[in-house]
Amino acid sequence: MGFTGLALGAMLHRDGIVRAGDAAPAGWSPPDGRPHFPPRAKNVIWLFMIGGTSHLETFDPKPALNRYAGKTIAETPFADSLKNKFTDNLRLLVQDDPDGHIRQVLYPLQAGYRQRGQSGIELSDWWPQLGTCIDDIAVVRSMWTTDNDHGAQLQFHTGRHMLEGQFPTIGSWVHYGLGSLNDDLPQFVVMGTPIADCCGGLGGHGASYLGPEHDGVQLSVDPLNPLPFAAPGSEVFREEQASEFALLGRLNRLSAVKYPDDPALRARIKSYELAFRMQMAVPEVLRFDDEPPACHRLYGLDRDVTRSFGQMCLSARRLVERGVRFVQIFHGSNGGAGAWDAHGGLRQNHAGQCAQVDRPIAGLLTDLKQRGMLDETIVVWATEFGRTPGSQGGDGRDHHPFGFSAWMAGGGIKGGIAHGATDELGFHAVVDRHYVTDIHATLLHQLGLDPRRLEVPGHKRLEIDFGTAIREIIA
Question: CA distances (Å), 289 to each of 128, 272, 293, 314, in order?
């Protein structure tokens, strides 16, 4: 019942069974499940594209790349891009690549683009369905990070460079800071194959020093086996298991009469009760037959190319609808750097990857909005870095941490705006630059949490860890 403890921890926190350690300073107390100030949002759905999605062929198209295609950066009016001081932020993981994957010969855009929605935000033609939702989205075009290799996947979730080790992820901080809205389900759910061991592994949804009770719970989109080892096995009837739990409950309560102040015993009683409830609640979330055919079409469940990701997006809506705080969905894990890692064949690669996720993401936003849930649910789209303006191997783009895009929607986030900017080549974030933890800080602010009040004694955080909420995109 290991997974049970992940939901159980917050319940015991709330009941006062789990307390701060003796070493905690006077006056400090762990979170009590209540926000620090009135929140604008209650839930988060975090969509992460593994491998490094090109900002240039998605949310930040640059016509100068077509105009100067085939020329080196030094041969264009933008030669100063190579001298920009922002390259000093780079912390190389691969020391035999001293230029940090900078590619010199400019590569033209591999997809068309046009203005979308009433807001007129320019968006790649590879996102036709998402384009219909652009007026609900705030695109942040000025992200930057410090890792030029795929450890940036871990960095986007923790805020720290991979060389510094593993730290609590944004989902774990939310889990730690807020109480449960549904005691039958985990508060922090992970779907899709997580990032590979090369790039952070389970640390991409881990809690580190916050404790394993705040780790994300991996959920498979399979109603028959959504949580490995959670069910008693096909040979055990549910009535039989219910009788076993009832007997254990009676025995434990007899012991509780004799030992009324034993917190471990109280925790054990709760864990058995919760385990049984979760066996019923989790498969119910994945019962897509409850949804009408129009909903299946909206998420792309009727198409082979979109079915897998569409099922996860629909599951995310059903989870937050039932009170799950944080749902993290990975796309593109392939046991290595990730499917979006387009060092070659970028046109075919990104056209295919976008086709898998465009309709399901648009369906998710549309569904949340028509149900009145987008007002209190934040949807985040992110990737570890962008791709170089210059070509690699003639038809690909390399890793690019100096400027790239992410976006947010719902939960009090302004819609129909493009915030920040990269330069004319899409090389550096130059206007309203945002390190990855600014996305974290914005989420926490909308959830009513002050990250500085979540700090744990004995684990001093750096200033950059806290980030700064992006006020310009908050309604």
Answer: 27, 29, 9, 12
Reduced to 3 states, what is the DSSP secondary structure of residue 44? strand
How many whole angstroms separate alpha carbon 113 and alpha carbon 109?
A: 9
∠ CA 179-246-221, nearest 5°, is: 50
Bridge-partner residues for 139, per DSSP?
407, 418
CB 273 within 8 A of CB 2: no
Q: What is the CA radius of gyration of the chain?
A: 23
Phi and psi (nearest 5°) for 341? -80, 85
Tens of pLDDT, residue by residue over 178-193, are 977 888 888 899 999 9
392-397 LR contacts (CB < 8 Å, sep 24+) = 392/103, 392/343, 392/344, 393/343, 393/344, 394/344, 395/344, 395/345, 395/346, 395/347, 396/342, 396/343, 396/344, 396/345, 396/346, 397/54, 397/56, 397/103, 397/107, 397/342, 397/343, 397/346
- Token pair 């385990």 is found at 275
Render pLDDT for 77-122 as a digit per residue (tens, 0 to 9): 999 887 776 766 777 666 555 555 689 999 999 999 999 999 999 9
Residue with tokens 């990701």: 309
Q: Helix or strand or coil: residue 267?
A: helix
Q: Global pTM?
A: 0.89
